[in-house]
Amino acid sequence: MNIPNLLTLFRLVLIPFILIAYYWPSESRFLWASGLFMLAAATDWLDGFLARKLNQTTAFGAFLDPVADKVTVAVALVVLVESYSELWLTVPAIIIISREIVISALREWMAETGKGAHVAVSYIGKVKTTMQMGSIVFLLATPPGTLIATLGLVMLYAAAALTLWSMMLYLSAAWSHLKKDM
């Protein structure tokens, strides 16, 4: 167990606290939930940075980091879909969550067939993750209908567009291997 892996586990531990903060009957609940989510997003960047800088990359970390990232984002999006209860937020949330399931399944299949290196994390994927995290920070920070929430929704649509783009890149990179096994 090293520092980057501990940070990743910490991100998972933060999830129930984000939920508690968001539903806590307090005027400051949105800011607390957003702040905790922002802390989780910061650990996503920090654990990767430290793993590379300290040469502490591990197979466990390579598995756990994307899981923690996807679970944190999915939980936040589900909470926001419930809170907003409108199609404008539900559609990009479905796109983002669906892409994560598809790409996770693709990576698992590629790893099982020995072709996992052909579906590495792309630059677009990193930009997508940053946009998702930023949009969720804004959406959690204030109740629906505020200017900040609207900015978060616009960013969420940008994240959904990047999500589709990165999914197409992953699928096209794996397509020749997929065709052989059909």
Commentary on this structure:
- The chain has 182 residues and is mostly helical.
- It has one domain (3-180): Up-down Bundle (Four Helix Bundle (Hemerythrin (Met), subunit A)).
- The protein is built from 6 helices and no strands.
- The protein has helices at 3-23, 29-53, 59-84, 87-112, 123-141, 147-180.
- Helix 4 runs parallel beside helix 6.
- The longest helix has 34 residues, at 147-180.
Describe the secondary-structure layout.
Layout: H1 3-23, H2 29-53, H3 59-84, H4 87-112, H5 123-141, H6 147-180
Give a quick set of tags describing it.
globular; 0% strand; 182 residues; mainly alpha; 83% helix; Four Helix Bundle (Hemerythrin (Met), subunit A)
Question: Care to count the β-strands?
Answer: 0
Structural class: mainly alpha
Q: What is the CATH domain class?
A: Mainly Alpha
CATH architectural designation: Up-down Bundle
What would CATH call the homologous superfamily? CDP-alcohol phosphotransferase transmembrane (TM) domain
CATH fold node name = Four Helix Bundle (Hemerythrin (Met), subunit A)
Q: State the share of residues found in helices, binned by percent.
A: over 70%
Terminal CA distance: 40 Å
Shape: globular
State the order of secondary-structure elements, H for helix, E for strand. Answer: HHHHHH
Tally of contiguous helical segments: 6
What is the gist of this entry?
This protein is 83% helix and 0% strand. The protein is built from six helices and no strands.
